[in-house]
Amino acid sequence: MMPTRSAEMHEHHPDANADNCNRTLPRHIAIVLDGNGRWAQRRGLSRTKGHEAGTENIRAIVAACLELGIEYVTFYVFSTENWRRPQDEVRGIYCILIERLARETEALHRAGVRIKHIGNRANLTPPVAHAIQAAIDRTRNNRRMTLTFAINYGGRMELVHAIREILRDGLDPATVDEAVVARYLYTAGMPDPDLIIRPSGEQRLSNFLLWQGAYADLHFTPTLWPDFRPNDLRVALAEFQRRHRVQTDRLADDAGKNPAPPVSADVPLLPPHLQRGAETATTQDG
Fold first, then answer.
1. Which residue, 121, 182, 186, 194, could crosslink 12 as a Cys pair with Cβ 3.0–4.6 Å?
2. What are phi and psi of 243, to 5 degrees?
């Protein structure tokens, strides 16, 4: 049974991000980690090296989001479709995940980050499932940021799972509405993403947060994920602000308030020392 109907889960509103216009920054950013293999191939490296570089890049983007006060960040790490890849590559990805979770969890804990997982853990290997659970247990009481890893995740599978759980619980069909369905999703208790970012030039969601992303802004960039820097995040946020600025100004005028200044693509998101550190963390020798 899913742990999504516990007392700690608040009622979910499907269009909760409809009030984005009140925010100068998104509350929840979701990112598809795409382009690791192509990044490696262009450098004559193995695809596993590309996944190592992509995983390393998570640290820099999380640091930037922490500095900005972003409350929720979700990374699409491994999809249900990724099992079709060569087994050596799949094993390499999971070895990287185990190692990085063990290495990074304590630092994330000290930074006040809560780690969560969405996806099906049933067919993960025991070491992977254990590493995920250990990170969740260590950080479960933190509230500064919720960092979610979508591992063995698929949006369609999530909906099928939710439907099965609703049927198993014997709910009256007349009582099943969008809010009820949302409580049975892996993301129950989390706000829907305001902004979904996809690097690598592809312009599709690829089965990522299909229900939750119904009203999200979408940002596509040709930059491959291992090369996606805090400056690329800055560009995405500036675009998000431009889209919502008119509504923000209108609401601010109605309320007699001045909206917060926007994030400019020309102004660093991080202080210089953190900017240098974040960019250094994402630099990989080819």
1. 182
2. -65, -35
